[in-house]
């Protein structure tokens, strides 16, 4: 209710602030009987963690995850799985100058007016650091979905500022610091140069990310409100800095005709995927395809106009360690959120219709 | 849980199918003490109802709403408000030919595989007709928000297929059949001609709709998951045929720099609204600005390839009465959904922080 | 959230007031593919309806239920099932004298202070009449549980005021006006006489009711909060006039020793059922046994001290039509509530652990 | 959903097992601006912790609580408050002999059949140790309710096996090891002797506990399902080993007449409190009075019949450290649960009706 839990049947409740002693989450509803250890979760956290290249924040965090509960002898027991990630590199002093002012583009102003009090250290609760527990929970969800249905998740950057990044193959994603699905060395060099230039200028840039889930059974989702695509939009727009979400053809569908947009069916399956794998809020069995827009990082070294708590004009400049493009690290986060949406609907479908064999309509 | 309720504190549970005896909803959580009668709700339903121009479905429905409970002597009592809308123009025979096949772009295929059974009459539960109760509930939400905070809602069409519709003023919206915020007679004539041509061709087209909420107090929303913008994305993507959602600058923020995107503050307020009225998931006090992409209507007279239940190839052609652009009637629906999101957060803010005077931070 | 919905996966949202145009409910989450018509529901409503003997209220209500949605060609579709029950015998004038005062033992005082407004006609929303939709929804739940698991529900009166009613067999329950599980004609005559005497005296009396669910699979329930017995206690205490709930040995367990209370197991099954079919919040596969205490009806003709809205002392006497023992009609209501609790846990178990074969532990 | 969260607006999600590395909880929804430190929580944990007298388990746990988040500079920020309690005295070997059998009266049998896997160390998740985080969360709730409304909580033992414990004053509760509200030295000596005898005999006994909340404003609760008393029944029945719950007159109301039970009102207030402070599911402003029955501890040294996983007969004897009467330590737990119910309804009332001044009906 108070906005710190995600999901209903596979529910993730997160806690922590950027510079408190630890962050973490409690996963309630993970099915019993799945082999699970920290080794299943850590690789996903490592994909997201800071300091992996010169293009992301230089904060030093090992993001070492501990499982506190819910696993016995290496197997999930059906009880809550608590994940704990200690904060190691807390430099509260970096943020000392911002406690009395509101940084443009940040949650400072809104938190202050909502709660009447706020933890300003590193953005407190609104820090992108809080996506780490989500990625941890997402790793658990991904494992279960993979084992049960063969579902796999992929993500990549498609646009960095004004640079379009053509899609070649997801296999290239881990081979460059941008999660770009390309092996085009010239393009990657151009991206690196653009990022270096931004850092020098003390500015930041936005990005567009695509995420895909493959081997999603037909029949996941709800008819009116908890539509699969509505829940995906909710999940994606909830990621820090996201300003837009598309499913399938997205905004391009505005100019399409019905005779062009509606994906025809043949005995071999759907012809095209303008739907993005969702019709009437329910999965079609095709790839779920999602695209998100991420705004430029709000923390920049360029001085900007703002006000202090008393309403007086001030200039604000954000020092400290920041990602010049938060979109870069957004790929594993978006994959995790998509996995959390899907596992919730997978469990819901079991509740509603039992263990239906994929693709086999059944009464009962 | 099963996807037919919207909202937590102001919760709307809908029921009904396109060709059943009635559709309706139960609103649970409307605050007590507000004057309310059918006359407060009917005008919003009239904006959405079919048959108002030649450009929308010719189904004849008065959409006459009855309040069955929750109001005593013209005042809300705090108990559930049930709204009932009888279905008058049910022509089940129009749909007789589609029970064995799956119409491209429709929910037929997914409902069948999810539930193993489906009501094919007029799309059953997946019909856009089910947005009527939502508009009714939205009218109740709008009234309460207006009385408590002065909040107002506006919406308009911004794109019809490939025709851009410049924004002049919301006052023009009710003066044309497209909810266009323009008085440009040439443009409107061009839109009418495009629609007439579509109808002749038996095809359909998409649209882009903008919705805005004004006078939204600062402080509504939650920090991590139930972000105000995430809930808006969920609400909008849940409207039939929506494929994309943007808040504020939306996808344009990808190419923006941080020094351009982050809205500066001065003692007079924010300079610009790239944020769309939401920072860190919480309202800033500025206009909430949302944009949605609506796909072309899937029901078209153009023959299309599909399969029947047994997987055999068939051709499908949809006769009957349909909107050639479902985007036209989407404007009041999107306004209603935005109102439902906001009232829920308004009540939540009272729970969390008490009756905070707008814009005045308070401890307690 | 606002207290008018019951259940999570099989969720029932009720609406209506005692003297409004209609009462009803929306069932969201009924699994698809079950044969269902009004004929499955009406008999349960007939068991609860007023006017069936001289010992219950003489209000004349046919309690004729209509299914408005969620059923197509006699089969549930998985979409919301709306039940509507028109109010036929509304005598608002009977209650005219009570709008300014607070009847002792009634919700008048608390509604007024909570909401600042209340519907006084027949108790408005707090009327026991609002248990009718629950019984309707319970009939749907009972049918599904019976078809899937063979689960059956039974209830009977065990105490009427100071008269103990020994349990002989549930087969006698429908043969007397008290839902007594006995064929003892002398005892039944004594109960009739006691009730006649009470009516003459203008007074009322309490009752104790037992309800049992048989053939409940092992494994339903949750470990910490949504324990099966906790949910049952919640359901039972939520029935109008209930003041106490016991599971299994109940309050008698206080004086038991551990060596006496803990039900031993043998290869043939449990020896005894002090647990009432629940251990650690999860069903054991034995009968679920519940006992509830129902207070005497608050509406009595005996004059009683109260105050009016301004705090002035007044005497209150309640005329109109009332049950001298609301406990009599509580039996089918308690059965319905138990069925609603169980179906929710049945669906939850499917979500958590899949379609586990009853009694067969399984990993996955 | 999966049964490890309590409360909606002040929501507590617990995690951990009896012999895992740590237990704890996440509180989501604590209002911002309240002073809070470990020193506010620890005293309540100390009341519940093991090893405080020879009559409770001798397990040595400091139950030292750490606040991991949600508090900045000693003040709650409105974000989740994570509480962590390390497990210090884990003797897994004590439980080695029980992994293959089901202890009578325990959750072993049901967990195994529900999940197909279980953590047998000290009862795992079903251990009464898991009430510690609840008591911690309850301390936070108590503080807020006390500061906002002056609400206070009291509890005491009323029956120990067959020994009735008359109520003298709550001030005696902390002066004896039983939470008895009496200074009667003879009675207390008799209770000590009874407990010593039980320990010698390797047996256990039940207890009856009363809890009271004072200064609860009128108007908390909901009309139909989330009745205040229903939520209390749910909370109490969810405490380990509870088999019965009463509100106000409880089961005694069965034999009462309406002219006796219904509490009359005078300008000075209610005359009597058979209602237990709740009418129609909503608080009356009187004391909330609750009574619970706690079964005898299931872990006893007396050999008992059971079966192993393969269904073969075995004899089970439980060694290790156990409370011979779990009812003794139940008093602070029951107080905590009552506080958690009340804070949730307090926040809900703010959402529904705004900051209504206590006792002043208001429209709006």
TrEMBL record, chains A, B, C, D:
Q: Which UniProt keywords apply?
A: Amino-acid biosynthesis, Aromatic amino acid biosynthesis, FAD, Flavoprotein, FMN, Lyase, NADP
Q: Specify the signal sequence span.
A: none
State the PROSITE patterns in the record.
CHORISMATE_SYNTHASE_1, CHORISMATE_SYNTHASE_2, CHORISMATE_SYNTHASE_3
Residue spans making up a coiled coil are none
Q: How is the cofactor bound?
A: Reduced FMN (FMNH(2)).
UniProt: NADP(+) binding residues: 48, 54
Pfam families given in the database record: Chorismate_synt
- Reactions listed under catalytic activity: 5-O-(1-carboxyvinyl)-3-phosphoshikimate = chorismate + phosphate
Q: Which GO terms describe its molecular function?
A: chorismate synthase activity
Q: Which CDD domains match?
A: Chorismate_synthase (cd07304)
**Needed co-factor(s):** FMNH2
Cite the Gene3D superfamilies for this sequence: Chorismate synthase AroC
InterPro entries attached to this UniProt entry? Chorismate_synth, Chorismate_synth_AroC_sf, Chorismate_synthase_CS
Enzyme class, broadest EC rank? lyase
At the top level of its lineage, which domain of life is listed? Answer: Bacteria
> What is the protein's known function?
This reaction introduces a second double bond into the aromatic ring system.
Q: How does it assemble?
A: Homotetramer.
Q: Matching PANTHER family, A to Z?
A: CHORISMATE SYNTHASE
Under the heading HAMAP family, the entry gives:
Chorismate_synth (MF_00300)
By sequence similarity, the record places it as follows: Belongs to the chorismate synthase family.
Q: What is this protein called?
A: Chorismate synthase
Organism the protein comes from: Massilia agri
């Amino acid at each position: 209710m108070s906005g710190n839990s995600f999901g209903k049947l596979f529910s993730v409740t997160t806690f922590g602030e950027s510079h408190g002693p630890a962050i973490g989450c409690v996963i309630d509803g993970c099915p019993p009987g799945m082999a699970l250890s920290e080794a299943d979760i850590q690789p996903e956290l490592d994909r997201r963690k800071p300091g992996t290249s010169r293009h992301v924040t230089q904060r030093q965090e090992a993001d070492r995850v501990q499982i506190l509960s819910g696993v016995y002898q290496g197997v999930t027991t059906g009880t809550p799985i608590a994940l704990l990630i200690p904060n190691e590199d807390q430099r509260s002093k970096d943020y000392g100058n911002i406690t009395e002012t509101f940084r443009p583009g940040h949650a400072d102003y809104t938190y202050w007016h909502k709660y009447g009090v706020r933890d300003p250290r590193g953005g407190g609760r609104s820090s992108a650091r809080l996506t780490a527990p989500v990625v941890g929970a997402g790793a658990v969800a991904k494992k279960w979905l993979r084992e049960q249905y063969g579902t796999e998740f992929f993500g990549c950057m498609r646009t960095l500022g004004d640079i379009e990044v053509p899609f070649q193959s997801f296999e290239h994603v881990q081979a460059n610091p941008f999660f770009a699905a390309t092996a085009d060395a010239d393009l990657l060099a151009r991206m690196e140069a653009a990022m270096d230039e931004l850092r020098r200028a003390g500015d930041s840039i936005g990005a567009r990310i695509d995420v895909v889930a493959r081997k999603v059974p037909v029949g996941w989702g709800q008819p009116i409100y908890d539509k699969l695509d509505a829940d995906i939009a909710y999940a994606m727009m909830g990621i820090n800095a996201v300003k837009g979400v598309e499913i399938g053809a997205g905004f391009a569908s505005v100019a399409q005709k019905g005779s062009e947009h509606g994906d025809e069916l043949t005995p071999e399956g759907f012809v095209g995927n303008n739907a993005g794998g969702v019709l009437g809020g329910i999965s079609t069995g095709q790839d779920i395809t999602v695209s998100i827009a991420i705004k430029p990082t709000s923390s920049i070294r360029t001085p900007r106009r703002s006000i202090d708590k008393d309403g007086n004009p001030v200039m604000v400049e954000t020092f400290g360690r920041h990602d010049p493009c938060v979109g870069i690290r957004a790929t594993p986060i978006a994959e995790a959120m998509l996995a959390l949406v899907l596992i919730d609907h997978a469990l819901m479908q079991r509740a509603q219709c039992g263990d239906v064999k994929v693709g086999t309509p059944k009464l009962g």
